[in-house]
Amino acid sequence: MRIALFTETFLPKVDGIVTRLKHTVDHLQRTGDQVLVVAPDGGLTEYKGAKIYGVSGFPLPLYPELKLALPRPAIGHALERFKPDIIHVVNPAVLGLAGLFYSKTLNIPLVASYHTHLPDYLQHYGLGMLEGLLWELLKVGHNQAQLNLCTSTAMVQALMEHGIERLSLWQRGVDTELFQPHLASREMRSRLSQGHPDSPLLLYVGRLSAEKEIEQIKPVLATIPNARLALVGGGPHCQALEKHFADTPTYFAGYLQELELGSAFASADAFVFPSRTETLGLVLLEAMAAGCPVVAARSGGIPDIVEDGVNGFLFDPTDEKGAIAATQRLFANPNERETLRYNARHEAERWSWSAATLQLRHYYRTVIAAQTLSSAA
């Protein structure tokens, strides 16, 4: 198959969407498919054999790490040269509108996927009054697709309730070769704890942005004796968080990748994740694959991954003391913590990227066949 993949974010950006897309492109190319990635220009022209068509853009005012790339006619010319069998639009917003347009004008089957729960983000940026309008725009965009994929059952339900049709689940995936418990090291513990490797070590990995509610970790940190906190990642909320955690033993580690990131997960005692806006929470699966016990909000797609008391702990995000109680429980019983580590790794091993991509290829073929039959009728 020849697949044109439109995305509002791609390399060199680091986030959960890019992680999924990287593995998806890699596995599609391995199976003999050809992928064209249409994305904001990040300086790359190729990834794992796939061509990247970079579209120049400008930083998003509320989120400078994201580039806003506007559709232009040259994209259509690139598609005509590539001759895709299917177009897949990831989070259709701005650049993705070109994917929607050219699927219609060139009569190419269309799949869309939903990875960022934007309506829930609005309140964190003072734009809550626009939620209804945003849902209407999402409905108009997604309902042009022959298939809409979500990464958790909670998101399938949320989109269904807001009138989005033809929904299916795109299963999770995680790199269990990169994220492994044996990567734990005292050197990494010392680095993340700023020279206190014997102290309890809490970890957060992900975007440092307002919607992640990272401030909620501060009272948790205060209630675990001698605990240290490491925040791994970057984002527009970094300076505000540095001020918020200024009087605490918190280390801002910046971005870590590959084996360093795997070692960070494996070396921590607990991965604390207060976000309520996750469509899935891929980073949770990475922590679990590395054997790091997870304490996360019971919200969005997270309960699809974390089974409370079995492979991690969930807390009610509306309860101010919920995260504190769950983390205290984790540290109170070392034997239970080791059971959680084992079960977390076992759960992660069920979800390979190759299986997730095999499922996606099946979806593609089904949509292509349906349009072929419709055109012949």
Short description:
With about 375 residues, the protein is an alpha/beta fold. It has helices at about 15-30, 75-80, 95-105, 120, 130-140, 155-160, 185-190, 215-225, 240-245, 260-265, 280-290, 320-330, 335-350, 355-375, and strands at about 1-5, 35-40, 45, 50-55, 55-60, 65-70, 85-90, 110-115, 145-150, 165-170, 200-205, 230, 250-255, 270-275, 295, 315. The strands form three sheets. Strands 3-4-2-1-7-8-9-10 form an eight-stranded mixed sheet, sandwiched between helices. The protein has a six-stranded parallel sheet with strand order 13-12-11-14-15-16, sandwiched between helices.
Question: Could you characterize what this model shows?
Answer:
This protein is of the alpha/beta class and 377 residues long. It has 2 domains: 2-173 and 352-376, 3-Layer(aba) Sandwich (Rossmann fold); 181-348, Rossmann fold, CATH 3.40.50. Helices cover 40% and strands 20% of the residues. Strand 1, helix 1 (16-30) and strand 2 form a beta-alpha-beta unit. The protein is globular and about 70 Å long. The model has no long low-confidence stretch (mean pLDDT 93).
Q: Could you give the topology of this structure?
A:
Layout (H helix, E strand, L loop, with lengths): L1 E6 L8 H15 L3 E7 L5 E2 L2 E6 L1 E4 L2 E7 L3 H10 L3 E5 L5 H10 L4 E5 L3 H4 L9 H12 L4 E4 L2 H9 L5 E3 L16 H7 L8 E5 L11 H7 L4 E5 L5 H7 L5 E5 L3 H10 L2 E4 L8 H8 L4 E4 L15 E3 L6 H11 L1 H15 L4 H24 L1
Parallel strand pairs: 1-2, 1-7, 2-4, 7-8, 8-9, 9-10, 11-12, 11-14, 12-13, 14-15, 15-16
Antiparallel strand pairs: 3-4, 5-6
